[in-house]
Queue: 2 jobs
Job 1
Amino acid sequence: MPFDPVYDRVAQVIPPMEWATMQDDVRAIQALKRDRRAVILAHNYQTPEIFHGVADIMGDSLALAREAEKSNADVILVAGVHFMAETAKLMNPTKTVLIPDTRAGCSLAESITPADIALLRAAHPGVPVIAYVNTSAAVKAASDICCTSGNAKRVVESLDVPKVIMLPDEYLAQNIARETEVKIIAWAGHCEVHERFTAAEIRALRQSHPGVVILAHPECPPEVVAEADFSGSTAVMADYVSTNQPPRVALITECSMSDNISLLNPNIEFVRPCNLCPHMKRITLKNIRAALETMQTEVVIDPAHFAPARRAVERMLAVR
Ligand code: SF4
């Protein structure tokens, strides 16, 4: 195969035969991005041909929200799930924000509604509501401030109150509660990818792979996080790996994360006890190409939710 600088970036994880089926879409997407003055924001859980092949900005939810706000492109295509595209629109409302498949949802976002928040507020008068960014714009609008897994503890403590409601991820709330004096009232939402990991699985992994450094996402159950060496958001995990260069590492999170990070850290052995997110995997090269060709589907936010949802995200971004 003639030298292809894009393939060179992903050759370790995509066989040449498979790349041959992707090349045409990659080239078409690069050309469409120029024609449309578009940028592609890709979450860390996107597959390598998207993450390393066509994305302009890669990162966790927090990084993508910040980058969406700064973007001067005409079109922002979000290679991620629907709440991420909504957040991009909230942060940069004059841009056309596209999502290639509107069915790319999230079990956390689907676990709670504004009516649930009204009930929680009635049960806990005066207690502020922190909404994980993995929520709909309507739920963000019903909340006081947002958080991500990367800044949840800072957001909780920034409010300077003895008690908060943190929703919808029960495990994230429980994991943060172990790190702060603030009392946290949780909701029973779970990430269908991270809830499947078990403490027994982590112990077995340690036995079968001596010396492995185990990093767990805080959406995992607390007993899984307790078995890990370190816990953090996908951005924090990536930073930990590139800074510390452990010889052998296991990322207890979605499958594509290890593929993407391994390409940037060729000297590290990645053990891969991963789980796939079916929602993230709805985004493909084919539907990214189609989205840029047809300019569909554009993300629209109910005007009634827009200002309060944006305020909740802005309050989060102001927390350092
Ligand atoms: S990995 Fe979990 S939190 Fe992330 S989009 Fe998938 S279901 Fe939602």
Note: The first strand starts at residue 38 and ends at 43.
Job 2
Amino acid sequence: MKAIAYIAAAILIFFGVIFIWGAFDPKSSPAWFLIGGVSVLIGFGIIWFASRSKAGQAGAPPQNVTLKVDLPANVAMDTLKCKSCGGALTPDNIKMVAGAPVVTCPYCNTTYQLTEEPKW
Ligand SMILES: [Zn+2]
């Protein structure tokens, strides 16, 4: 995966340099210089990003496990009930969909957004 990023970056920089080189030709349009510059910048950006994520991988453990319980404010989970059947819901029944907490009731299979809670 990382090797692919470096290869893609190398290709981008390679073609970017060719475009900039071509821009010095009086017959070519100055837009070439812009295209070349942008692709070189993206290439270096990928290298920077790839090397940065490698450094972060060593220290921090993967965090995707806690993501699904990432709810706004402190939700009182013991009082949270399905608005369709009244069954008690756990954090496992709530998933973040497009930035909004969505409840999937394990009892009646109702799916709805957690937006009408007056407490938070
Ligand atoms: Zn329900």
Note: The first helix runs from residue 2 to 23.
